[in-house]
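Methods: example folding runs. The two proteins below were folded one after another, and each record is reproduced exactly as written to the output file, sequence line first and C-alpha cell line second.
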Amino acid sequence: MHIWTIPPETRLPLLKGPVRFAVGTPASLSSNSWRVWTQGQETYVVCRDAYREIKASLHASGTWKVGFTEQAVAASPTLLPEGRDRAWKKWRPDLDDQTKLVIGLQIPFLAQSLFVKPESRSRWRPKVIFIEPPVDPQKMTVVSIGVAPTLSPAAGDPALEGGVIAVLPLGASRSVQLIAHYEDSGSLRQTILSAIPDALAALRERDLLPEDAALFLYGEKPLDIPWVTAIRLREQPGQGKDTTGERS
C-alpha cells in the first residue's frame, strides 16, 4: 500500500492530529476527504466535503455514536423524522480487554467511491493523506478508526496489505488509531451496490437526479461495527443480493 503525504518525507504513523485522509492519488480521482481528531479523551470523525452533516463520536464516557450532527438537524429539520434520535447507532463497547483494539467506525472505499476530481479539491487542506487504491478490482480499501489500550501501533494481521497510519494519544495509556488495508470487496460490495436501484428510482420519481449525484450509505457489519461510505450514483451491472448478514 502506498501512502501519499505532504511533505513526502512525513513519517508514519502520524502521532498528532487532526488527521485528514482520502483514498486515491493527488493527480487522479479520489474519494471525499475525512477528518479525525481528538479533544481531550474524545474522538471525532467527519467527512469534510459533501457529507458534513454526519459525525462519529467516540466519547470518553464509553458511549459511542454515529449519526447526524446537532447543527445539521437544527439547520435542516426535515433530515430527521419527528421523534427519531439523530444518532443512527448509540452503543457502549467493551473497552476492558487490554489486548485488543475496538473499532468504532469503518469506511470502505470501492472503486465507485473515487469520483472527486483534482480540480474539485482546490480548497482541500494541503496535508490530506492520499491512500492509493488497490490495483486488483476485486479488492477495496478499508479505513478503520478504533481505540486501543496502548500508545504503540496495534498489531495487525500480517496477511493484510496495509497498516497503521495514525496513533493519536487519548491520555496516558490509550490511543485512537487509524488503520488502512485492502480486503476482498465481495459481499459488502454487493450490499452497497444493491442500494443503488431504489435510490435512483426515488430520485427519478421526484425529478431530482443530477449527473454528478452520489449516494451516502450507513450499515453495520457483524461484531457491532458500523460503516459508512459514499459512491457515485449510477446503474451498476451485475448487482446481486447480499446474504452475509451485513445490512445497509
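Second run, written to the same file directly after the first:
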Amino acid sequence: MKNKGLLIAIIIFFLTINTTYYWEGKFGFFAFPAFLILVIVYLGLAIALIRQIYLAVKENFSDIPRLLTIGLIALVLVSTFFRPMGLIDFEKLESDAVLIAQREGAANCMTTLKLKDDFTFRERSVCFGVTEIKGNFYLQNDTIYFDKMSVNRHGNEFYVFAIVKPSRLIKDEKHFDLIRYKSLTDTVGYELSISKNELYKLKDKKPNR
C-alpha cells in the first residue's frame, strides 16, 4: 500500500492527541517532553502534506489514494490545530463538578482540584510537567475528607481533609478558599481559591464507601 508508513503515523498521532485526557497525568515531568515530541510530529506531518500536494499536482491529481491521504492529513492537522487536546472533552462525559478550586504558583504553575457529584475528586497540577491524583471524598458536617487516593508517580502524600473558609485575600461574602490539611496536627494548610461551590447539592446524597 502506497504511503502505508505515513498513514500509520497519522493514525497513531490522531489517537494519541485524542486520548490526552487519559495519559497526560500519568507522565508527570515527562508530559512536556511528550508534548514536544507531538509538536515535532505535527510539523513533520505538515511537511508531509506539502510534499503530497506537490506530488499530486505533478500527477494532475490522478492518484486517488494520494488524494485520500492528503485529505486525511489535512483533516488531522486542522482538527489538532483547533482542538489540541482532542475532539472529545471526556471530562464532560463524567460526573459534574460541585466544587472547583485553583491556585497559581510560581512560574505559572497551576493546581486545579475538582470535586464531583459522585463523591470522586481529581487534582491536576501543571508545573514543569503534569501530575494527577484521583480519589474519593466524603462530607462530615463542614469538613471534606479525602480517601482512596491514587498514588502519583512521585509518591507525594495527599491531604487528609479540607475546610471552606472566607477568602484571606478578598474580604467579602462572595469569595471563599478551600484550606487543605495533611494531618490533624497540620496548622498551616494549603489554600486554593474556590471558583465554584455547589456542595449543597450533596446534602441528601451518600457516597458509595
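Comment on the second run: The chain has four helices and eight strands.
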